[in-house]
Amino acid sequence: MKLAYRTVDVFTDTRFCGNPLAVVLGADGLSDEAMQRIAREFNYSETSFVLSPACPDHTARVRIFTPALEVPFAGHPNIGTAHVLAAMPDYADADELVFEEKAGLVRIGVDRDVDGTVLRTELTAPEPLTTPAIWSVDEIAACLGLDPADVATTVHPPMVASVGLPFVVAELASRAALARAKPVLDAITRSLPRDGADSIYVYTRDCGAADGGADVSARMFAPFDGLPEDPATGSATGAISALLASRAGIIDGEWRATFAQGVDMGRPCRIEARVALRAGRPDTVRIGGRSVDVMEGTIRI
C-alpha cells in the first residue's frame, strides 16, 4: 500500500520556519495503530490524515495525531491541511473547506490571490470558550521553573481554557520570564493531566524586537504528548484569544491580535487571531495564517 503525503511549514511564509506539518492523503484504509506509527515516524508536533467525509457536503474527515496520541482538534494541522487541499484541483475554487473532526465540524476560510493561489487559511474554532478550572500561581510557577512573581494575574489567573482542546494557560509579567520558562517534569507530572489538559501555554504582552511586532509572544510545553515545546499552537491561541477578548470590555464588536510563537526555539511563527463578541461574550473565534509547501512524497505501508 502506498499513500501520498505533503509537508508544509505553517504560520509562516518562509520555508524552514513556522511549525512543520505532515498531511497524509487518502488515509481511509489505515488503522488507528498505523496512523500513530506514521505520526511517530514523522515526529512532527502533529500529523494530519485526510479521509473521506461521512457527509458528502463536507470536504474531508481529518484525524490528527501527535507522536504519542490522537487529539480531537488542533490549530496548525487544520491551517496546513486546508492549505494543501485548497491547492488541489477538486477544491481550486473553494473559499471555504469543512472538516469533520472529533471535536466537531471545523470550517476553514481560504484567501486566494487573483490567480487562485492560496495566500492564507483561517479556521473557526469548533467549540465556545470554556474555563473549567483555576490554578494557583505557585503551581504554574513550579511547573515552569519560574518565580511566582513572574506570573501576571491582572487580567486572569492561571487556568484551564479551551475552544476545542484544553490547555493550562497563564500570562507572564515579562518577555524575560517567557524566555526563562522551561518544563519541570517532576512538577508537571504532579499537576497534570487535569480537567482534560496535559499541556501548558504561557504568554506575555511584553513583546520584544525578535517577536516581529506581534501583540503577544507565547510558548507551549506538552511533554506528555512527545512535544517538549511546540513552535505554534493554534488551538491554544484560540483559547487565550477568546479569554482575552472576553475581558477586553468590548460589548459588540471584534477583538484582534497577532501572536508570535516558536521564536525561542528558532522556528518563528506568526498567528493572526480575531474574536467576534456579542453582548460581551466571545461568539466566533478565528485563527489564521500563511503556510508554505516544503516536501511531497510516498509512504509505503
UniProtKB/TrEMBL annotation:
Active-site residues per Swiss-Prot or TrEMBL entry: 46
Pfam family, one: PhzC-PhzF
UniProt similarity note: Belongs to the PhzF family.
Entry GO terms, CC: cytoplasm
InterPro entries, per the entry: Phenazine_PhzF-like
Superkingdom classification of source: Bacteria
Gene Ontology MF: a single term: isomerase activity
Identification of the protein by name: PhzF family phenazine biosynthesis protein
SUPFAM superfamilies xrefs: Diaminopimelate epimerase-like
